Amino acid sequence: MSRITIWLAFALLLGSCAADAPVDQNLASGSRVQLVKQSDGTFTLLRNGEPYHVKGAGTGSGQGLGGGSMKLLAASGGNSIRTWGISQLEEVVDGKPLLDRAHELGISVMAGFWVQHVRHGFDYSDPASIEAQRARLRDAVLKYRDHPALLAWGLGNEMEAFEPNVEAEVLWRELNHLAGIIKKLDPHHPVVTVIAGADAAKIAGIAEHYPNIDILGVNSYVNAPVVGQNLVGMGWQGPYLLTEFGVAGTWEAPATPWGAPVEPDPSTKAAETYTAYTMDRDNNAGRSLGSYVFFWGYKQEATATWFGMFLPTGEKLPRVDAMAYAWSGAWPANRAPRLNSLETPVAFKKVAPGSRSHATADIVDREGDELRYVWDLRAETSDRGQGGDPEAVPPSFSDAIDDGQGTSRITFKAPSAPGGYRVFVTAYDGQGGAVVHNVPFYVEQ
Length: 445
Known about the structure:
Elements: H1 3-12, E1 33-37, E2 43-47, E3 50-51, E4 54-58, H2 69-75, E5 80-82, E6 92-93, E7 96-97, H3 98-104, E8 108-113, H4 127-144, E9 150-157, H5 168-185, E10 191-196, H6 200-209, E11 215-219, H7 227-233, E12 240-244, H8 266-282, E13 288-293, H9 318-328, E14 338-343, E15 350-351, E16 356-364, E17 372-379, E18 401-403, E19 409-413, E20 419-428, E21 434-443
Parallel strand pairs: 4-5, 4-13, 5-8, 8-9, 9-10, 10-11, 11-12, 12-13, 15-21
Antiparallel strand pairs: 1-2, 2-3, 6-7, 14-16, 16-19, 17-20, 18-19, 20-21
Helix pairs in contact: 4-5, 5-6, 8-9
């Protein structure tokens, strides 16, 4: 598409703002959230008149909020969740709609509205598509603006990343229009737009073309501890939220010679997550309004365990405990088991098909609970997504385990098909905690 075509499309839509009815000033009682800029240039978020620092977690559709994990968030000292799409607000959590359950537990919600991505087929030169997206936003704001759990509107996620054949200026201008719709319909909740890391060009583009933004959201992993300092250096003068942080991303981790990212061990993950949170909290030049750890649930992304803080069966992993300590200053009464080591002669090596080996896990439980071990062999994923897109779970070869299933040491046979694989071990404490780790190897014909 040409630049001229894009701007003609936007010109056709300039009049659509008039269709946005102003907010009814006699709204039913709901949360009231506002930004206050202090005389020294720092910012405070007020929720119902009280200072509010976000201690949050991001959670995805159908990926772990049931089974008490939202209750555990509150018990751990967390006070907010971030969603990515409006449909999540209607999901049932512990028998109730998500927003209602959150409010019941004293948890606020940054309600995500998924602004469509070009890489998923959206056409920003098509007036009908743009207006349909605007209409969906109007409907969502009118439906949820009065809910007492609402903290802010999360307008879009990583819109500027991975987008072929579209200028960033076009995206910023459309986001500015969408934010304007929200502000007319709901002046009581700020607008947050999330970017994939920060650089000077993005900050300059937002400052020039997106004046309606209230809070900048930044997803960052390895650089999470210095996001606040970096934003100031890039000229960002407003507040921000660290909207995703945690372990080093799969794209930031070292890789094997065959290209498999090496997953950090559980203790390293917990330490990285804790450090990112505390450094952002303490060294942000007064611009940070808080953060959302990624990911309060489970998901397949390179592996089934890289980013998730829970297992599919609901057990918490060590990063949950790390965040409980970060948020509340106290460890939970029952902590997840600790992995000291996972060793196998095939780790990071190429082996022959059908060759035999063994693996040993050294795992301890601080409370002395008896551990239950589950081992698995899985193929390396062949379905790597971009930007967190859904991935298929790779196949299991658990029948390759010859002996020792259920104990801390197994023997196994390498699969016959060439390719990358991983040896996984999971230990359950029977009290709602678990620890999991893996090491990669490669079968070479």
